[in-house]
Amino acid sequence: MGRLIYSMITSLDGYAEAEEGGLGRAADDPEVHTFVNDLFRPVGTYLYGRRMYETMVYWETVEPGPEVPPHILQYAEDWRAAQKVVYSTTLPAPSSERTRIERSFDPDAVRRLKEESDHDLTVDGPNLAAQAIRAGLVDDYHLFITTSVVGGGKRFFPDDVRLDLDLVEERSFPDSGVLYARYRAR
């Protein structure tokens, strides 16, 4: 049975998406990116909303070249190998291989997907993740906390839920100031 993981870069004040500007230097740190690669290489399926999918489909197009670092090529290879499920009422067709579109988020279907999977799954993007959290589907939370305070935007956790979590792992990345924290649902 696969575990459902929710992971995103977050600001120090808990936002996964800032109203204005970026969330900090986490994505630019090769050490953080390599860690993410290793952490998510076993993922077999990514669950996306349309907006997150349109951001992530970039990885379908990454090609080797002298200016492309090995950690970027590795992530692109791993991403292309995984299945993708995109929840969208407006996206007419996927623009990547191994991708299907679902018109609505069905918690029971995701529960079955977890039960039938030999690999972990991720739910990506704060809006879609909020639906999975409310349905009690998320097993693990991986936060990559930046040094930025952004003051507003979309929160990593939805405001209307209560969760009790156990800290399972933590790590710091001194070059970027990023803190990684992995929590498991009780």
TrEMBL record:
Domain named Bacterial bifunctional deaminase-reductase C-terminal: residues: 4-167
Any one GO BP annotation for this protein: riboflavin biosynthetic process
Top-rank taxon of the source lineage equals Bacteria
Enumerate the InterPro entries for this protein: DHFR-like_dom_sf, RibDG_C, Riboflavin_Biosynth_HTPR
Among Pfam families, the record links this protein to: RibD_C
One GO MF term attached to the UniProt entry: 5-amino-6-(5-phosphoribosylamino)uracil reductase activity
Gene3D superfamilies in UniProt: Dihydrofolate Reductase, subunit A (3.40.430.10)
Where exactly are the transmembrane stretches of this chain? Answer: none
Among PANTHER family, the record links this protein to: 2,5-DIAMINO-6-RIBOSYLAMINO-4(3H)-PYRIMIDINONE 5'-PHOSPHATE REDUCTASE, DIHYDROFOLATE REDUCTASE FAMILY PROTEIN (AFU_ORTHOLOGUE AFUA_8G06820)
What name goes with this protein?
Deaminase
Query: What organism, scientifically named, is this protein from?
Result: Microbacterium bovistercoris
